Amino acid sequence: MPSIDKVSTEKHEGDAVCIAFYGNQVFSGGADGKIKIWDGDLNLIKSIDAHESYIYALAINSQGKVYSSSCDGCVKFMLPPYDKVEELVRCDDVIQAMYCEGDVLYAGDDKGVVSNWENDKMLFKYNLVEEVKSLAAEKGWIYTVRDLDMVISEVVQGKSGKYVTRGVMPGKSPLCLLCPTPEMRHKYVALADRTGKGFVMISNSPEEQFKVKSEQADCHEMIINAFCSDGTNLYSGGYDNKVKGWTDMDQPKLKALGEVEAGSCVNALCCGTANAVYIATSDGVIRRAKFV
Predict the structure, then answer these.
(1) pTM (2 decimals)?
(2) In the predicted model, is pLDDT for residue 159 greater than 70?
C-alpha cells in the first residue's frame, strides 16, 4: 500500500509552493522566498534566501541549474553547489510557470507571453494571449493552459516569435507530459478537466487529432493542483490533501495505484527515484510518499 514514509523535520514559513528533483536532491520553493535543498530522505542540506517574496515556480535544466520565479518580478538562478543566487531578468509581469527542455528555459507570464532562454540569453518571445498557469515544451511545441483550454503551439523555425496553433483541448491547469519516447515527443499529455476535480489524458499526436485516450472524472473530491510523472506512472494531488497514483497509460481506463493522505493542501509534486513522490503542501512541510 502507498504510504508517507518521510516527513521533513524543518519547513517553509507559509506554503511550500513548488518542488523539483535533480541529482538525488529535492528543491522546494516557498511563500517565504526561500529555496530549500534536501537530500532524498528529506534531511535539510541548506536554505537559501532566493527572493524577497513568494516563489511561484522552479525549473532545473540538464546541468542542474536551478531557476526560480517570484512575485517580486524576478527570475533568478543558481548553479551547483548552490551557494550564489544570480538574477536572470527583472520585469513587471508575473511569471507563474517555468519548464526546462534540456538546457533551454521556458517561462510563461500572466499576460500570456512565453519566453525561452539559453545560456542566460533570451532567444524569442511568443505572445500566446492567455495567462500561462502551467507550461511544458518539447521539440518545437509549447503547451500552455489556464482555466478553459490547453493550447499546443508550434514554433515557426527561423522566425522570431512566430508560431502556429497545433491543437486546442478543453481543460485547465495543471498539465503534465507522459510516457517519453526515444525519438518522438511524449505519447500523452494529462491535464485537469474543466471541473478541476478530474483529468483527461490525450494523445500527443496531430495525426490522432489529439484525441482523448482516457478520462478520470471526479477522481479527487476537490480541485487538482499538481501532477508529476516518472515516465511510467502519473500522480495527482490537490485541495483534498490527497495524492493518488495511476498506471496502465495505454489502457482506456487507468489503473489506480492507491492514495496517500498528505495532511494539508497539495501545492506541487515531483517524482524521485524508486517510486518516490515528493509533496509540497500548504503547511510548509515536504513529504515523501512511496507507491509500491
Answers:
(1) 0.96
(2) no
